[in-house]
């Protein structure tokens, strides 16, 4: 039979084991523990809170205290007001709507129109930060996404092809805008900032469809902007270009010249045509 060892452990062995356990515990905590707050993160939290305060004062009456949306049922000639939910719309939607003065709306209408901007740029950034914190959504484009001046001729051609295929039905072939049913309209793109053209494609305001990055990549959006801006910068040596005055004026020319010419020609035929003899 083997004899049991009578050797005793060194007194420091237990202390060494305890120190090793504490070291491993500290290393594990450092791996999973949240990072300490930095000045940048603290600034972000402060911006979100400032945006929330502005939102409660200026936006909550239509969009709800938590941006969940509000519906009020009206009576008679007053159909009531409706503010859609802003959860998940992202900072891009806030930037477009507020920097163009469309929000806050002056009064309920089929479509929000561009007007004087009510908030400062810092306040708009704060509200955008608050709305973006509610749920994931489209962020504002980067400077690279908006650098349309460096798009080559091939990119401009591709942007023009997409614009003519998907946008001219509402915005006209040169972006002059046009009327739509139910009192709505496609606004002119002349003089619109590139960032707002980009955000309109990204978020689909009003009746405009949404062209997400999966449908239209940031490069494609930049090409579209390059096409629109290039067309607007081109001169018309022979006078007003086709579509340059918008669909209403262009339609008037078609009726006065086209239909008027056909009517005059029909009258001339009736007056000078061969008359049948009576028997």
TrEMBL record:
<feature type="transmembrane region" description="Helical">
    <location>
        <begin position="252"/>
        <end position="271"/>
    </location>
</feature>
<dbReference type="InterPro" id="IPR009152">
    <property type="entry name" value="bc1_cytC-su"/>
</dbReference>
<protein>
    <recommendedName>
        <fullName>Cytochrome bc1 complex cytochrome c subunit</fullName>
        <ecNumber>7.1.1.8</ecNumber>
    </recommendedName>
</protein>
<dbReference type="GO" id="GO:0005506">
    <property type="term" value="F:iron ion binding"/>
</dbReference>
<dbReference type="GO" id="GO:0005886">
    <property type="term" value="C:plasma membrane"/>
</dbReference>
<feature type="binding site" description="axial binding residue">
    <location>
        <position position="63"/>
    </location>
    <ligand>
        <name>heme c 1</name>
    </ligand>
</feature>
<keyword id="KW-1133">Transmembrane helix</keyword>
<feature type="binding site" description="covalent">
    <location>
        <position position="59"/>
    </location>
    <ligand>
        <name>heme c 1</name>
    </ligand>
</feature>
<keyword id="KW-0472">Membrane</keyword>
<feature type="binding site" description="covalent">
    <location>
        <position position="62"/>
    </location>
    <ligand>
        <name>heme c 1</name>
    </ligand>
</feature>
<dbReference type="InterPro" id="IPR050597">
    <property type="entry name" value="Cytochrome_c_Oxidase_Subunit"/>
</dbReference>
<feature type="binding site" description="covalent">
    <location>
        <position position="170"/>
    </location>
    <ligand>
        <name>heme c 2</name>
    </ligand>
</feature>
<dbReference type="Pfam" id="PF00034">
    <property type="entry name" value="Cytochrom_C"/>
</dbReference>
<keyword id="KW-0679">Respiratory chain</keyword>
<feature type="binding site" description="axial binding residue">
    <location>
        <position position="171"/>
    </location>
    <ligand>
        <name>heme c 2</name>
    </ligand>
</feature>
<keyword id="KW-0677">Repeat</keyword>
<dbReference type="InterPro" id="IPR036909">
    <property type="entry name" value="Cyt_c-like_dom_sf"/>
</dbReference>
<dbReference type="Pfam" id="PF13442">
    <property type="entry name" value="Cytochrome_CBB3"/>
</dbReference>
<feature type="domain" description="Cytochrome c">
    <location>
        <begin position="154"/>
        <end position="232"/>
    </location>
</feature>
<dbReference type="InterPro" id="IPR006311">
    <property type="entry name" value="TAT_signal"/>
</dbReference>
<keyword id="KW-0408">Iron</keyword>
<feature type="binding site" description="covalent">
    <location>
        <position position="167"/>
    </location>
    <ligand>
        <name>heme c 2</name>
    </ligand>
</feature>
<feature type="signal peptide">
    <location>
        <begin position="1"/>
        <end position="30"/>
    </location>
</feature>
<dbReference type="GO" id="GO:0008121">
    <property type="term" value="F:quinol-cytochrome-c reductase activity"/>
</dbReference>
<feature type="domain" description="Cytochrome c">
    <location>
        <begin position="46"/>
        <end position="135"/>
    </location>
</feature>
<comment type="subunit">
    <text>The cytochrome bc1 complex is composed of a cytochrome b (QcrB), the Rieske iron-sulfur protein (QcrA) and a diheme cytochrome c (QcrC) subunit.</text>
</comment>
<dbReference type="InterPro" id="IPR009056">
    <property type="entry name" value="Cyt_c-like_dom"/>
</dbReference>
<keyword id="KW-0479">Metal-binding</keyword>
<keyword id="KW-0349">Heme</keyword>
<keyword id="KW-0813">Transport</keyword>
<keyword id="KW-0249">Electron transport</keyword>
<keyword id="KW-1003">Cell membrane</keyword>
<keyword id="KW-1278">Translocase</keyword>
<keyword id="KW-0812">Transmembrane</keyword>
<keyword id="KW-0732">Signal</keyword>
<dbReference type="GO" id="GO:0020037">
    <property type="term" value="F:heme binding"/>
</dbReference>
